[in-house]
Amino acid sequence: MLLRLSTLFVRTLREDPADAEVASHKLLVRAGYIRRAAPGIYTWLPLGLRVLGKVEAVVREEMAAAGAQEVHFPALLPKEPYEATGRWSEYGPNIFRLKDRKGGDYLLAPTHEELFTLLVKDLYSSYKDLPLTLFQIQTKYRDEARPRAGLIRGREFVMKDAYSFDVDDAGLDASYAAQRAAYQRVFDRLGLEYVIVTATSGAMGGSRSEEFLTPTAIGEDTFVRSAGGYAANVEAVTTVAPPALDWSDAPAAHVEDTPDTPTIESLVAHANAHQPRPDREWTAADTLKNVVLALVQPTGERELLVVGLPGDREVDLKRLEAGLAPAEVEAAGEADFAAHPELVKGYIGPGALGPNVPVAEGAERTAVRYLLDPRVVDGTRWITGANEPGRHVFDLVAGRDFTADGTVEAAEVRAGDPAPDGSGPLELARGIEIGHIFQLGRKYAQALGLTVLDQNGKAQVVTMGSYGIGVTRVLAALAEANHDDRGLAWPAHVAPAHVHVVATGKDATVFDAADEIARDLSGRGIEVLYDDRPKVSPGVKFADAELLGVPLVVVVGRGLAEGLVEVRPRAGGDAQQVPVADVVEHVAARVRELLAD
Amino acid sequence: MLLRLSTLFVRTLREDPADAEVASHKLLVRAGYIRRAAPGIYTWLPLGLRVLGKVEAVVREEMAAAGAQEVHFPALLPKEPYEATGRWSEYGPNIFRLKDRKGGDYLLAPTHEELFTLLVKDLYSSYKDLPLTLFQIQTKYRDEARPRAGLIRGREFVMKDAYSFDVDDAGLDASYAAQRAAYQRVFDRLGLEYVIVTATSGAMGGSRSEEFLTPTAIGEDTFVRSAGGYAANVEAVTTVAPPALDWSDAPAAHVEDTPDTPTIESLVAHANAHQPRPDREWTAADTLKNVVLALVQPTGERELLVVGLPGDREVDLKRLEAGLAPAEVEAAGEADFAAHPELVKGYIGPGALGPNVPVAEGAERTAVRYLLDPRVVDGTRWITGANEPGRHVFDLVAGRDFTADGTVEAAEVRAGDPAPDGSGPLELARGIEIGHIFQLGRKYAQALGLTVLDQNGKAQVVTMGSYGIGVTRVLAALAEANHDDRGLAWPAHVAPAHVHVVATGKDATVFDAADEIARDLSGRGIEVLYDDRPKVSPGVKFADAELLGVPLVVVVGRGLAEGLVEVRPRAGGDAQQVPVADVVEHVAARVRELLAD
Predict the structure, then answer these.
(1) ipTM reported for the complex, 2 dp
(2) CA-to-CA distance for A279 and B211, rounded, in angstroms?
(3) Which of A265, A570, B363, B434 has its CA 20 to 30 A from that of B114?
(4) In Å, how far is B52's CA from the nearest CA of chain A?
(5) B336 and B269 within one domain
(6) Strand, helix or coil at A325?
(7) What does UniProt give as GO cellular component (chains A, B) (predicted)?
(8) What's the domain range around B472?
(9) Domain for residue B525, yes or no?
């Protein structure tokens, strides 16, 4: 393959696009790989399409090696299957919906669980047909509220989605393991660093769930890991609850005047000044903060919820939503407080909350659901609101003085928190989700009636797994991981070409020599990008080569008079002067090395 | 490649799908290549996807060979570019429209002229950048009123669309010729018979326009051809008008009572009975029929139109619409006649019509537009309506007694009509449109401001060509052209595999031998489908092999005891008994032959 820059449909830009914040977005646009068509919707130019094709090829090969068979579903789909599983409403405004000319409801599919399930139901009927894993590489749509970071969170994007079908749990475990191993091979081959983290399954339902994240400071996902090998998405971190405490020696709860202490900070200061603790200072961790939130179901139904958690922790809405999916959570507003005068802002305590909470004599109580952080175990003692302005209750003991409707993982995870598996303290990092594998179980098969007859002729509901790779996002992650200030620096396996030949100056002999080198390399099966532009300065050509990011740059210029050509690795390392007679052999060998890595 | 039927995701069906009318649709579904997801929307199963990939590969290679560069545009696009060219409204209900969560208008693109134009405008600015031809292979959407014939007229389908950009007309001609030649190579390589016909450009605008049709009785498009080499879409056929006649000897027009003659047939019968012609009988060709129609603009604006044509011809609405695009034409209704009492149904004559038409004294006249068939030349004499019930006018001479607002190609084309280029009488045939190439000219570049600076630094509007191949439709056309009663019979270049190995019976030695043959062939780079299903009868296996349509079938069965294996060409020809030791070599040679064709 030989692409000549004089005719290649590409233009590099010196300026970052105004809407770009992350390096992959800036550089992919500047280098002429992609171009924005609408928010979160991109056009692929020739060089970008070449890289995308290479990423797809790696995914396709590893899927085939793992025994998955390729199919292809439409993007435009009727509502009915998604209604049968409840996702038509659960997705809320996050999907694109439309009507056809007859008024039929359609969507642009964000994932295809329903269609794969129905297809297998259509074709298969016996346990002998299973196991089966199908996949597609296909364009998907999500109407993101905030498309961002170029290809990292788009509204039209390419995904590989695979689904496994098994007759029993052991089969699902095996299918899951095969896909998990295939994902590792895909990312290994692409040279993309990744961490496999335990995840929640969100609106998809199901049980075992892991994400492949590539660590990067610009990642949207925070994850945690311990030195002992634990790794999880923050949404999936479970709190290590302390053991319950004996409360037999605890003093009775007592209400104190705490004027002007609507915040944890002001409350702690007041307590230290007026109700000092003999052994140590009060801290925020001694207070029980009760946060009023609103739970919004996909149907639009809205319900208040109070979450009680130690005052030194903030509520992490994403963690809370993961536990309450598919509902979304938002802050309560003035109207909510107006409708619930028993919730005294800044002074809310458990005494006012929930059907299971004992109520002080004469106090108002509310039917708002009350959930506690798992750290609030029986016997823990708290300073918390007394449900009157300027008053708090001290020595309120969980289990003795109050209970709640349950616990919830709502508190933020912090560096230093213990890993749930006892493998040490957690550290926090950021990453981009590039893959997600999870065990759907029987949810979709049950909803859509996918059964097979077992050995005894009895109908068994099939159990499924779902496995996704964000193909366009992987390309962006590769750009994030392989660039510097001057541009992209692709790994050889996904680069749009292996070698970038630059002819500099105006000398016809230089162009003739460069032309011959480019053609000879191409003749050996090496992919060559050849900058043959006649009237472009060497500086511009070098800058373009660095921006475009082809792994080896061959410069044919002044040195030619001495019979020398320069070979520079784009990603770093020394430039070498190579005799022109040897350069094709030399470069071919280096390309072989790069591709063998 | 070796696909085992025991695990391949495919199920053949014995019954035709209820909604299928044409062979390609029936067989592609029955053979497990595609599956309906919604009206006009299909899922691709593994075998179908393999064939589709091969068709795409041929198209992609020939596009590259013709110098076209591949890009990829989104399917989901904002309204604005389509509004700038007027197509947002012109498409009417034929496109899928939707709103995003912010209320922005989007469409699922039916073609991408606007986006290609804007992309080139974004990147290029000089005549030196041209010529340029870009293409994509991409999923497109049209909300067809009547999706039909499976893949032939779908609502989600794959198209290759290419666009050329030139600075002048000579450049456009060269780009057009390059694409035209590439199309010929594509269809030649696919072994698909085609006719290149002159076409109209419809809602696209533009000048030179040709369609590639593959002749088939189930085709939606009627085309004509002459023995002398003329070929055209019926919409593009221009009528050969006879020379004007001298009317000096014509008698004056005279109105006659013709009671109960609202049809041409009844009128001709009456005239022969009561106003006999001395030289011969009157025929329908002597009458001038005036048909009232309504013209509906994409904006919804509706206007009446009367078309005058010889009484022996029907109006062809598709031809008429081609001349009046983007308006659509419908029959006039009772309300239209009620609003225009001067249009006396069954007795309408030119005397009542149009601003240019002389009006008989005292007669009503109308402002309805009046267009004539080109055969109604000056000097021709007609029997036509007298604008009173039961009365007709005789010897009404065109040019002398009436004129109209213009001519229009509204009459049906009939076998035997003269070819417009004088190359003889036309014959009619039916075909499927598999490709369309046309010169858009400057319409899109003008509307969207795509100019480049010429040698003199002056801005020139770019001239464009547009070139489409319906990739999924081509696959269906291949199935139409390559099947028999028993199933599909693919040409080797697009078949999902080259060889279908069938193991029959229950004998383990048969399966072992078949397995070895399948693996050996696969090891030589031959694509093998291997029917290794253990408990399926030979009859079912043979029927499946004929349905699936792989070009060579190798049967390993009873003959093995005598050391023989049978090799059958699927498309016909004798089965051969080949010694098992030679079969791999023999089959490999035959596959090479088939692929060399």
Answers:
(1) 0.88
(2) 92
(3) B434
(4) 11
(5) yes
(6) coil
(7) cytosol
(8) 11-219+431-480
(9) yes
